[in-house]
Amino acid sequence: xxxxxxxxxxxxxxxxxxxxxxxxxxxxxxxxxxxxxxxxxxxxxxxxxxxxxxxxxxxxxxxxxxxxxxxxxxxxxxxxxxxxxxxxxxxxxxxxxxxxxxxxxxxxxxxxxxxxxxxxxxxxxxxxxxxxxxxxxxxxxxxxxxxxxxxxxx
Length: 154
What we know:
With 154 residues, the protein is of the alpha+beta class. The protein is 25% helix and 25% strand.
């Protein structure tokens, strides 16, 4: 069975999905990369950018998406808090709730964290919508090491 990442015994591998559909999307994602690298841990792989239509709502603004793999010593909850802080620092003011989505300058989702499975009301790992969203699973496939097998694939 493949592991999602080749981390040291003290580090964890976390895969983050990023998207932006407001303002200078590319610049926002690059700023998010810098903050992730600084606050979550070093980015060891990143996908190409992928343009996609909004998912779950109507907008004239297309998204720019990507996925990164980081090595981290943070717990999943700490990663969640830090990524939410990064979102706020880059201009995000509201979170999507109850399946209601809207335009946003940045969105950062935890997709995978090692082989962890958790289903708390505010944090599910693996992210439950990975395979419903082309703009998530396509870039994720770019950064996952082959072969793609194991407990993180349903």
